[in-house]
Structures are given as structure tokens and as C-alpha cells.
Design brief:
Blueprint lengths: L1 H13 L9 E8 L7 E7 L4 E8 L7 E7 L4 E7 L4 E6 L3 E7 L3 E4 L3 E3 L2 H25 L3 H29 L3 H7 L8 H14 L4 H14 L11 E3 L5 E3 L7 E7 L4 H16 L5 E7 L4 H11 L4 E4 L4 H5 L7 E5 L5 E4 L3 H11 L1
Parallel strand pairs: 1-7, 12-13, 13-14
Antiparallel strand pairs: 1-4, 2-3, 2-5, 5-6, 6-9, 7-8, 10-11, 12-15, 15-16
Protein name: TlpA family protein disulfide reductase
Pfam family, one: AhpC-TSA
Organism: Ulvibacterium marinum
Amino acid sequence: MRTIKILVLICIFSNGCRSQQGPEITFSFEVKSEEITSVTISKYNYDLEKMVEWKSLDNLIPQKTYQTTDEFLEPSIYALKLNTGKGIKIAVEQGGMVHIKMEDGIKLESKIASNLDFNKSIENLNNQFFAGMIQDFDKAMKENNQQRIAELEKEKDKVLLQFIRSMENLVMQMGPSAKAYDALGYFDLNKNSDFFEEMMTRFEAEYPSSGMSKSLKVRINKAAQLAIGSKMTNFKATNKEGVLVNLSDYEGSYILVDFWASWCRPCRVENPKLLELYKSFEGVKFEIIGISIDSDRGVWEKAIQKDGIVWNQILDKDQTIYKQYLLSSLPANFLLDQEGRIIAKNITAEELKTKLETFE
């Protein structure tokens, strides 16, 4: 009897008689359509900073409910994709039940999870701040009204600050969470580093050893490598003519690495100004490398022809180079000195002209 009592005490105080388990997330999938036969669940890996397939539920039968569980270690991001092609991304902030109805699409019913739709918030803000201005820009560009374009550029710069502050406020209201982590991916670290660091501090206070906090720290450290005075990391890619372009080959010249796209109005406004500068400073060791993130090669080539671009152009269709430099917005550029060090970022054609005049 004494031995049994001792064993009971050991079990109570050391948990030695059962396996330790943390809270769980239980996904409950309710199938409401015959067309839905499988759902693939991917989970965001904070170390790899990408989605990784986690589990697949196959041979689903209509009017049945299927469950699967995952250990909850910290707020997490999941992507759910049906065999029909439809899918959603969700943030799960704590352990518990996540109920999902699968009919025409995917409907989330949960108090501990939410849809990740920050892109819709950005679209709403974009319409709120820029809808009328976009039409004015298009009209001015079509008429080649440079005076009106210049006026709109100044107005755009003021409105852009309000737009960014509104984005920041939305994320601040989310607090440290998987949803906020996802939303931070829409911010350009080269342009919003102060806000990013402020949010990272809040994450570290709430979740000090989490994958989220560590991931944000890694991003900030990477951004520090793109600070003024740092040597820009190299890239290699083929240009429009199929010739290999190697950034390091341009050392000895001042280089503007210019990221753009055919659909980016501010980029298209800058192109004629850059062309004028490029021709004006032919005697200076100055080059431009244009990198477009267009998805359609034909549209990209048409924009090059229309804007009269004569410098090297690279199509970064899968955004490999774009992401290498932690970019998430356009226009964006880096001005490098003759040793390949960053001496300016996100400068206008007017600011570039002032810089070039000092190089002569």
C-alpha cells in the first residue's frame, strides 16, 4: 500500500505517469458539396518564412465532418486549399476549435481564428486615398501634360504619408498576433523600418521566444545590410536580349538599380525623366539597371518601347531579386557608388540629377 501511495505522488508532482501535451488546435471540416473531395492544409514556417504543406484530407464525403489536430505552440498561419482550386489563409491566435464549412468555397466559423485579408484593407485605403488621383494621372500622362503631372506628384507624396499611417494604424490595432505578422509582410522594410522595429519590440514583449519574433528580428537584420553605406549584395540575371547581367561587373561606375513595373504609374512618370538624365550624363560613368516585376513579358516589352528605355532591362517575373532586397512596393531604387556601396535609396529623378552633378 505504501508503495502505491508513493507512485501516485510521483505521478502527481512530476507528471511522470503521463505524456505532457500543450494546448491543441482542432480543425473541424464540414463538407457541404459533392465537388469537394480533398483539402490541403499548409502551415507557415517562421524559420523558412514560407508556407509548408502540413496535412491533406482526401476522399472526403459530402455531409460528413472531418477533424484533425495540431499542437498549438504560438499564434500560427494556415492556408487551406480545396481540390476545386479555392482557398483561404487564416490566422489562429490560440488553441481551441476552428470550424470550417466547405461548400461553394471555404467559410470560417471560429472565435480563435480569422481570415487573412489585409490586401483587401489596402485596396479599400487605396480607393479612399488615390481613386480620383489615379484618373487624373492617367489623363495627364495621356495628354503629356508635364505641369499637371508635377502637381499630382507633389500631391501624391502628401497623400502617400496619410495612406501609410492608416496602414500602420490598422496593424497597431491588431497587436502582436499572427494576423499582424502577416500584415507586416505588406510593408517595405526599406521605407517603413521605424514602424517595423516598433512592432517587433511589441512582439518580443508579448512572445519573447516565438518564431514570429525571431522571424521579424531576422528581417530587420537583413534590412540593416541594405543601409546607406553598405555594399549591395550581388545578383545575376539575363536582360531583355538574353545577355547575362552581373551587378558586380558594373563596379567602377555609379549605378541606379531601378525596380518598376508597367502598371506602376509613378514608375512610368519617372521613366522619361530618367531617360533625359541618362542621355545628359553620358560622359559620367553612370549606368541604370531596370528590374521589372511584370508578370507578362509582352506588356513589359511594350512599356519599354513606349517609354523609350535604352538601358539594361531585366524581367524579374518571379520577384526573386525584388524579394532579395526585401522590397514590397514600387517604385523603389538603390543608387550605388563606384565600389558598389549604397549611397541613396528611393530617390526621385530630380534628386538623382543633383547627385550626378557632384560626380562630374
